[in-house]
Amino acid sequence: MKKTMILLSMFLGLSFGAFAAEEEMLPATPYAQIPVMGAKMIEFGATSCRSCQAMDRLLYSLKQENPTLPLFFVNVMKDREAAAKFRIRMIPTQVFIDKTGKVVATHIGLLNREELLQRLQKYGIVQ
Questions:
Q1: DSSP string for residues in 18-78
Q2: Is residue 30 part of a domain?
């Protein structure tokens, strides 16, 4: 009985912990719903990827500070066509797109807050 209670409490703790972490992440947007025109950054990743989770928490915090920021998360596990279109080979991958809809840069891996903000400014996504 004691083992069962311990296992149950561990499972519930992990489940609630995962739920809480998802609340702090940028929600996935199907690629088809992302505006074609306008400068933006698209984060390609998966909710099961730890590096993607860290990157998404950063994007979420930036969106909380400025809800109009054009930052999007595309889940490659659910939107494989978009991942193929952008030739995503590793995750997380950030794709920076200018106001005409042209890809101006791609980055694979994590960016810290300062690096991300510099790139968003450099590519005209944020002023």
A1: HHHHHHTSPPB--GGGS-SSS-EEEEEE-TT-HHHHHHHHHHHHHHHH-TT--EEEEETTT
A2: yes
